[in-house]
Amino acid sequence: MGNPLLDISAVVDKDFLDKYTLKPNDQILAEDKHKELFEELVKKSKVEYHAGGATQNSIKIAQWMIQEPHKVGTFFGCIGKDDKFGGILKQKAEEAHIDAHYYEQEEKPTGTCAACITGDNRSLVANLAAAECYKKDKHLDLEENWELVEKAKVYYIAGFFLTVSLESILKVAKHASDNNKLFCLNLSAPFICQFFKDNLMQVMPYVDVLFGNETEAAAFAKELDFETEDIKEIAKKAQALTKVNKKRQRIVVLTQGKDKTAMASEKVETFPVLKIDPKHIVDTIGAGDAFVGGFLSGLVQEKPLDQCVKAAHYAANVIIRRAGCTFPEKPDFK
């Protein structure tokens, strides 16, 4: 469950980033001052449109890694009714063999995300629009939708959705906890733990698997007064936070770009990523989402955790060689 967005990506220069006060590698929510950014980006010569939204990307990658059967993953989110971008998202979800059930409303158009690429960095500016209109009572609570939730074994929600519908997340998280199923969450962006800390900490006791990258982990550690910047220590301390379902120990997985991934499970371990020549990196859009997708593909197939990390590293390595969060027809992961 998450924010379905259409990614609008283009290569920009430093002046463009400065004009809209963007950091080269960041994720933020659009404000009024960014309205013109979207208009300017669309006019660029090589603009690309890709179906995006962090959670939806991860579910697609998990499906791609698994291949058969189709529709392993079900996705909930909100789009605009009968608008062009919503139509593209529906079509792309179908092509990726995702069982997408969108809540369609007429108040706001389908959300977009500007991906401003400089070198191998990407600065994301999300205009949630319709994605922000997801309503628990209008969609999640409907019998036919809740049945799909009950049928699932693994749940994944990106932290971005904490700004949209905390009550929907808590309903799913509690269901997972009560039924000893796996509930996974992503820290998603520094602004989530900085400005939506209360929401995040309401959900944390139900989290079985927590994902994040090094900048999110650092912001999280700072907000929670962990008094450490060491990635392994942060993983350990995040693992030790209060947990409702005592039958499962929390797993914390923190990535660091080209540096080793840290995972806290029985113990804290690090795993080197696959080497890549920088000239083969097209853009890093969706790298973190792909990592999660690869990991989830291992989890649902009940593979050992080190194999889940291996699948995660493989998926991320494929995605950074391509524009946006796109992938070849089949994986060659062994």
UniProtKB/TrEMBL annotation:
Annotated signal peptide: none
Enzyme class label: transferase
GO biological process, one term: AMP salvage
Subcellular location, record wording: Nucleus
Residue span(s) of domain Carbohydrate kinase PfkB: 19-328
GO cellular component: nucleus
Family the entry assigns: Belongs to the carbohydrate kinase PfkB family.
Name recorded for this polypeptide: Adenosine kinase
Phylogenetic lineage: Eukaryota, Metazoa, Chordata, Craniata, Vertebrata
